[in-house]
Amino acid sequence: MAVTTASHATSAPRTTTAPQPTDALPDETVDAVVIGGGAAGLNGALTLARSRRSVVVIDSGTPRNAPAEGVHGLLGLDGTPPAELLATGREEVRRYGGLVVSGQVTAAAPAAASADGDLRFTVALADGRSVRARRLLVATGLRDELPGIPGLAEHWGHGVVHCPYCHGWEVRDEPIGILAVGPASVHHALLFRQLTDDLVYFTRGTELDQDTRARFAARGIRVVDTQVTEVEAAADGTVAGVRLADGKRVARRVLGVATRMQARTEGLEELKLPTQDLPGGMGCHFATGMAGSTEVPGVWVAGNATDLMAQVGASAAAGALAGARMNADLATADTDAALLATADTDTAPRAAHRAA
Question: CA 167 to CA 159: how far, in whole Å?
């Protein structure tokens, strides 16, 4: 299945949450700084704080799922508003002595090692503040890039959705249109077909082979090859349909689109963290190993910044695992430092005796 060049993409609107209480940055070096206060970052911080580590979460207040009415597929918390879930998470981190600071990270870089040889990082904020840490957890999440169709971005998170598992039940039985962006959209269409009998696939310049068209026909999926020029809104502000290049209008209440997902890397350039592209130009994420470890000593990544497909539950679990590995690494460093101090103490009397 061949794919032609997609139209210009635009980032999905980033919703800023209401201002939250913020803690003061400590002057002393902390065990860990967590960059990003979503599910991954907060759960990583919670794990570290419960291990009696000094931890600071720095959060910009622009979570990816802010436009959503509820978090879905999260056992025991299905339907919880995102802002409520994050507020609870911040309270839990603080309960164990962790700090949560509102701010935008503009730079994070390795600093000179400590006297005992342990790692040090400096994290700078947009307002001029900074904090030093022994370890870093990057949990910055991602941004979604939408096709550059007029009228599309305004409905993001409501009438325009990307994930059948996050939003599918809420849009079931509605007239749904799939706006193709590449090969991933074929699978996308089959997943949304599970949710509605009224599904239209807008190819938008992509080419479907005959086998795919036959499979769509067998499932009752209508294919429209004419280009989409605009998403039209109803009087109440919801999606009304799409306008085609030939002037025709196809009524739809919901539009599904597979976004290009781009890990948020701003301010992290000095860390030189390796990245990896998804096939078909569908995104770019930080490359990680076991439990979010990276090629950069002392730096872990968790959540959507490295796993672009992860839902809230998976991101939280990844953050907890990364936090546990960070604590283990710190425990080793603490032991190394204690051993070095013991050796220095033992050497000092012997050196004094020889001098005498």
Answer: 10
